[in-house]
Design a protein that fits this description.
InterPro entries: Beta-barrel_TonB, Beta-barrel_TonB_sf, TonB-dep_rcpt-like. The protein is mainly beta. The protein has one domain (2-125). The protein contains no helices and 12 strands.
Length: 127
């Protein structure tokens, strides 16, 4: 099992832009929480299975904290077989096909959405 969490409490100590005072406001694009948790099972003879959840809390898009992008949580799965330097694995990232704003700006004209569900087969040879 592996897990991690980060707490980020960033605010402006002093920030004035013309007549606007943003002191004490949250910094844009800085989530308060990010984290992951994963569980892996290694079976005899090289087989394994792994599941993980990763996520982040909402972020503000401007210094005034008027516009925000919601947080997200994703589930990723992988199962495979390892033998010597070789490994073959089937994986699925973003299993629930969750759509979230991966990048966006306060004007709303430019938004980059998250990658959709990805399913694949990975073949690895380690030198």
């Amino acid at each position: 099992m592996k897990a991690g969490v980060a707490w980020n409490h960033t605010t402006f100590d002093r920030f004035q832009d013309g007549a606007a005072n943003y002191s004490g406001h949250r910094n844009p694009f800085a989530p308060a929480l990010t984290g992951h948790i994963g569980l892996r099972y290694d079976a005899p003879a090289g087989w394994y299975a792994q599941a993980s959840v990763v996520g982040a809390s909402k972020v503000y898009l401007d210094a005034a904290n008027r516009y925000r992008r919601n947080g997200y949580g994703l589930v990723n799965l992988v199962a495979g077989y390892q033998h010597g330097n070789w490994e073959i694995a089937a994986y699925a990232n973003n299993v629930a096909d969750k759509t979230y704003d991966a990048a966006g700006y306060q004007n709303g004209f430019v938004t980059v959405y998250s990658p959709p569900r990805e399913v694949g087969l990975r073949l690895t040879w380690r030198m």
